[in-house]
Structure formats: structure tokens, C-alpha cells
Design goal:
Helix content is 43%, strand content 13%. It is of the alpha/beta class. It folds into two domains: 34-59 and 218-300, no CATH class; 61-198 and 309-369, Alpha/Beta hydrolase fold, catalytic domain (Rossmann fold), CATH 3.40.50.1820.
Length: 375
Amino acid sequence: MIPRLNHPSDLEDLRRRLRATRWPEPWPEVGWEAGTRLVELQRLVAYWADGFDADAQQHRIEALPWRSADLDGTPVGYLRFDPVTPGSALPIVLTNGWPSSALELVDLAERLSNPSRFAADPSDARTVIVPALPGFPFSPQRPTLTGQTHELWHRLMTAELGFPRYIAHGGDLGAGITSRLAQAHPEHLAGIHLLAVAAPREVDSETLTDDERDHLERVQRWISTEGAYQHQHQTRPLTLAPALSDSPAGLLSWILEKHRAWSDCGGVLSTRFSDDYLLTLASLYWSTNSIGTSLRPYYEFAAGLTTRVDRVSVPTAVALFPHDLTRPPRSWAERTYDVVRYTVMPRGGHFAPHEEPALLAADITEFARSLPRVG
């Protein structure tokens, strides 16, 4: 399940492709307004080809507590962080979004499983499970079109790991999976913690509050200015996939622009993401050839193949980071969820588990304290 970033022949091929990149003709300088800034991409491609230490990143990844499971014929890699001193705190499963990997959740998982290391209450230590999304790095095989990831997660937590009751957290695609998990198995979910919420299936426009109308207007503006990638993923992902799978520079460009646009970086990527972090992520997608399969959840949702979220009855916490894609008001979330905690964070963006792991861990912990513990 652990990709080889440093396989000699694969590295030779990657570096050859990077050095032979056929660059587009440059435009007059427009910054990032029209997409990835060419000069920044060229700088990172040069470092990826001749400076990036794949061995060091491989050793760091291999040192993590990886496990694997076969879930109804779908092989899934996952991380398991156990508390140093087992207690009664509920276990939690964490799910990332796109374009990311399970590695984004490592800092958060370490804070939740070993809080005393971060000067927090050791009694809050809990087992943390971080499964790798099917079709993403660490679980590159995607199940059949009718496969439901939330059901794989439930099987992992209960049948494979023996947790009859647990908490779940997710953002972006992971928020949808977490929501469907709670809707399908409320008797097993003590609570869920989300960075994004599913829109209600039906809304009477006459019942909308002013805050909700403002939210929907912001969503439409975001779709107009930032949503082209989503429309492509939902409608023609197989047109895009060959280009991203054949060109490492193109793959990096697709990932890079989203990390800048969706994070709380103030337009400067290095304030939130190191070069090594971004290139490790790109290397993971490249070495597993999983960028194409990572687009499938978008297509499957748009095609009606994914279970829709109607109503989630389990206690729900919502944490909103100011630079994430959307920031729905509490009343909007309450149309679908039993919202018992609603937190507006002071900083952070779409990649909050990496950008602000301390803030996120504290919010999850406060929410978990309000839930009944395992006896």
C-alpha cells in the first residue's frame, strides 16, 4: 500500500519527463489570475527534477503506522494511531478531500492520539484511523461504480477493527463521506465533525434567511470564478485524465493552483506549504498513477451513483475556516444536520488539517468531550 517514490527506474523516467517539459508560450504577466503562474511552476519543476529528496520523503512515509485491509474486495491502506495510554475516549476516523492524501491528516491524528505531547489533556487521547480514499494514493484501486466509500469505512471501523461506536471527521469529499456514514449508521456514530456540509435536498426559497441568501450568492460567485475544475471533473474527467497522467508538470500545475487558491496563504504558497510537502503530494499521485481515479468521486456524484444526504440525525459539529471554499451559516447546516456545535475559526483554509492542526484538534476534542464515552 505504500508507494515507492524512490524506485530508481521510476525516478529516472520522472526526471526525464520533468526536464523535457514542453512549456506553453508565456503570456503577458498576469500573476495567478489566469491560473498557475508559469515562473513558479517552472521553479518547482526544476527542484522536483534535480533537488527533491525522494529517499528522505520515502523514509518519512514508511515510518508512519500503516496497515491494510481488504474491504469487500477493495484493498484499502490506512494509518492507525493508538494512544500511548488506552482509555475510554471514543475512536475517530478521519477522511481527507481533494487534491490531497491521507498524509494531510497526520499532524491532526498525532494531536488527537497523543495530546500530552502537545501540552493537552492526556485523558482525551483516542485511537485515530486515517483510511486512504479508494482511487487516491495509498489505495489506488477504485471499487466498482456502485461502491460506496462510507460503507467501506463502516466495515473497517466495526468488522475489521472492532469499534462498535466511533466518531468521524471529514472535509471536502471527506465531509460527504462522513455525512453519508452517519446517515446510514446512526446507531454506531456517536457524532460527526465536518468542515463542509451537504446542501439540503429541497429548499423553499420563501423560508431562506438573509444569511442563507448571502451564502447561496457567495456559492454562485465561487462557482463562476473557481468552479471550472469541478465542472470538468463531474462531466469530462476522462478527457482530462490522460494529460495529468502523462505530464508531471501538468499534474503539479493542477494541484499547485488549488493549494494557493484555497488556502490561507495570502497568495504566497510557502507560508503554508513547503516545496517538499507539495512535491511529495505530486509524487504520490504520480507514482501511483492515481490522479485520474481521484476524479471519479466527482463524476459519480454528478451521475447520481453516490448516495445523497437527506438528513443526519447524529450530533454534528461544524468548523468553518475563513479561506475554505464555502462558509454556510448555522441555519443552513441545521436544515440537514443536528448541529450541536458551530465554530468559526480565526484563520485557515481548505487544507485545515495541515494548515491549522492545533485549532482543528482542539475543536474536535471539545466536541468529543460532549459525547458519551465508551464504557
